[in-house]
Structure formats: C-alpha cells, structure tokens
C-alpha cells in the first residue's frame, strides 16, 4: 500500500482511499484540492456525488495504484 500523501494537489484526478484513525472510510477520485492541501473534493461513482474533505478533520489520503 502506498504511503499517505500530504500534498493533495498532486492527487487531482487520482483514485484514493480516504482513511481516518487507520480505517478506510471510502474510496473516490480527487476532483480538486486547495493549494495548501487543507481541503479536497472527493468524487464517488454512481449516485454518491462528492464530498468536501478537510485535513483538519483527521483524514489521511492514500493513492490507489
């Protein structure tokens, strides 16, 4: 499993695992991220839409390869 990525801008367009406290919350595609990597928008398949993710909420992001 790849390491967590701190620079969320590098992940735009990539599929990632969203984790919290070491557990996978969900997977999705990074649609956009702020330049300071404090916020990202994660897009999901189907009718699940997208979600605003903040680093201050304790999320860890790992790219899927």
Furnish the topology, listing elements before pairings.
Blueprint (H helix, E strand, L loop, with lengths): L14 E6 L2 E11 L5 E5 L6 E5 L4 E5 L2
Antiparallel strand pairs: 1-2, 1-5, 2-3, 3-4
Radius of gyration: 11 Å
Beta-strand content estimate: over 45%
Low-confidence region ranges: none
Measured distance between first and last alpha carbons = 8 Å
What number of domains? 1
Indicate the percent of residues in helices.
under 10%
Average pLDDT works out at 88
Task: Write down the overall geometry.
Answer: globular
What structural class results from the helix and strand content? mainly beta
Give the beta-strand count. 5
If strands are numbered along the chain, what order do they take across the biggest sheet?
Answer: 4-3-2-1-5
Main sheet makeup: 5 strands, antiparallel
How many helix segments?
Answer: 0
* N-to-C order of helices and strands: EEEEE
What does this structure look like?
- This protein has no helices and five strands.
- The protein has 65 residues and is mostly beta strands.
- The protein has one domain (8-63).
- The chain has a five-stranded antiparallel sheet, with no helix packed on it.
- Strand 1 and strand 2 form a beta hairpin.
- The termini are close together.
């Amino acid at each position: 499993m790849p390491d967590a990525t701190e620079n969320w801008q590098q992940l735009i367009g990539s599929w990632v695992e969203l984790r919290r406290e070491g557990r996978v919350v969900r997977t999705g595609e990074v649609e956009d991220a702020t330049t300071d990597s404090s916020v990202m928008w994660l897009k999901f398949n189907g009718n699940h839409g997208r979600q605003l993710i903040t680093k201050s909420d304790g999320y860890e992001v790992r790219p899927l390869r």
